[in-house]
Write a structure and sequence with these properties.
Galactose mutarotase
């Protein structure tokens, strides 16, 4: 894989597979954000470059990283035995600078976020969050590793992890999603819902969560391709989000629902001195 550092005013690095020509663009200083994924000569991700150019605005596009929570907590506060800590929606990982390096096997790129002065007021744990991004034939594999660097006897590190990829689509009105269960949970009403009803409203804007039942296939007939999310436990919940009129649909793997660190539902814990790995994979096919 060939690595090209940022040029000019752009903070983005570019990683290219010389065999296939597939490529990733990454902005490590902007939350370890994957801003582009070129596969088979086509860009798979939606990315609002104009919005990205204004650091005061939240990013719309690419693959933001959600850590140490997905969604929000009551009162935007993480309550622990150590006290109460302010923690905004989706956590802080997408807002902090990461480091970047090629993977040792030469098959991709690694991103790394460590605890520090910017994270500790919100999350009082010594941690390392590492992402490995691997370009595979017609696919992108993502592995995350969370390590608890606290001393022996320290409280376990609680977390949820999610990815928020914006998949570009040519015509949202014709998009199909295959592989979702019949029932879901609507984040807009915070109530159970029927998945088919949500899919009927993609053009109006939806935000719902489904329990994992295997791969979820996004079929975009107008764009001539399908993108499939292959989730893996424990990051096997699937969130679907649309934000019309943007030509995209988010197909997101989450490890826990909103409020997980408060309710305990699907909350993940890493003992001091240990690590936990999570992952998923996206594949692309022509129609």
């Amino acid at each position: 894989m060939t690595l090209h550092p940022p040029t000019g005013d752009s903070p983005r690095w570019r990683f290219t597979d010389p065999a296939s020509g597939d490529a990733l663009t990454v902005a490590p200083e902007r939350g370890g954000l994957v801003t582009g994924w070129s596969c088979g000569g086509e860009e798979i991700l939606y990315f609002d470059a104009e919005r990205f150019a204004d650091p005061a605005k939240s990013v719309r596009g690419g693959i933001p990283v959600l850590f140490p929570i997905c969604g929000n907590l009551p009162g935007d506060a993480l309550v622990l035995s150590q006290g109460s800590f302010p923690l905004a929606q989706h956590g802080f990982a997408r807002d902090l600078p990461w480091s970047i390096a090629p993977l040792a096997d030469g098959r991709g790129v690694g991103l790394r976020l460590e605890d520090g002065p910017q994270s500790r007021p919100h999350f009082p744990f010594a941690f390392v969050l590492e992402l490995e991004l691997r370009l595979q034939p017609s696919a992108l594999a993502i592995t995350a590793r969370i390590s608890h660097r606290g001393e022996a006897g320290a409280d376990p590190l609680p977390f949820s992890l999610g990815l928020h990829p914006y998949i570009a689509v040519a015509d949202l009105s014709r998009v199909r999603l295959e592989g979702l269960p019949a029932d879901c949970f609507d984040h807009l009403t915070m109530a159970p819902a029927i998945t088919a009803d949500q899919l009927f409203r993609l053009e109006q804007g939806v935000d719902f969560l489904c329990s994992g039942q295997g791969p979820v296939r996004l079929v975009d007939p107008a764009g001539g391709r399908a993108v499939t999310l292959h989730p893996a436990a424990p990051m096997d919940l699937v969130v679907v989000w649309s934000d019309p009129p943007r030509p995209m649909l988010c197909l997101e793997p989450w490890s826990g629902p909103r409020g997980s660190l408060s309710t305990g539902e699907r909350r993940l814990l890493v003992p001091a001195g240990e690590s936990m790995e999570l992952g998923c994979r996206y594949t692309v096919e022509s129609l």
